[in-house]
Amino acid sequence: MTFEALKPQVTSIITSSNSVDERLLAICQLLEQHIDYYNWVGFYFKNGDKNELKLGPYVGEPTDHTIIPFGKGICGQVAVSNKNFVVPDVSAQDNYIACSITVKAEIVIPIFLNDENIGQIDIDSNTPNPFSEEDERFLEFVCEQVSEIL
Ligand code: SME
């Protein structure tokens, strides 16, 4: 399914009357089901006033990394940089937290609420170098939609 076709489905989930966590999980499921190179899809959010991320809803293999300190791994770096991080080859990264040996690439896009970086969507792929600027634009759209229910 194309990103353009997925956008109204994202909006439909966001505007439903389910709980926030149910809606976030439904977005993870939608993305993982319809984009074949999205193999783990999850949300991390700033954990209260601590300088760490806490895992939220996700689909894919369970991960031990439910708490990630700011600055650690790809996710922790995005918490500090406020910028998209596209990793075509995770084995080339020094500051990387491995969740599964099958993962080849990762993309993390921050979520902003009132200009503050409050979380992120994190996607792992088992395909090498699968992400393009279209993924970034689509995931920025997803993050903007998500920020409206936080
Ligand atoms: N690989 C991430 C850790 C989270 S897992 O991908 C679920 C990182 O380096 O921050």
What percentage of the residues does DSSP assign to strands (E)?
A: 25-35%
How helix-rich are the residues, as a percent range?
A: 25-40%
Bound molecules: methionine sulfoxide
Radius of gyration: 14 Å
Total helices: the number is 4
- CATH fold category name: Beta-Lactamase
Distance between the ends? 27 Å
The computed structural class is alpha+beta
How are the strands of the largest sheet arranged? 3-2-1-6-5-4
CATH class: Alpha Beta
Count of folded domains: 1
Oligomer: single chain
Give the overall average pLDDT. 97
Number of strands: 6
Structure explained in plain terms:
- This protein is of the alpha+beta class and 150 residues long.
- The chain has one domain (3-147): 2-Layer Sandwich (Beta-Lactamase), CATH 3.30.450.
- The chain has four helices and six strands.
- A six-stranded antiparallel β-sheet has the order 3-2-1-6-5-4, sandwiched between helices.
- A hairpin with a 5-residue loop joins strand 1 and strand 2 (52-59).
- Helix 1 packs antiparallel against helix 2 and helix 1 (3-14) runs parallel beside helix 4 (133-147).
- The radius of gyration is 14 Å and the shape is globular.
- The model has no long low-confidence stretch (mean pLDDT 97).
- Methionine sulfoxide is lined by residues 40, 63, 65, 68, 73-76, 96-97, 99, 106, 122, 124.
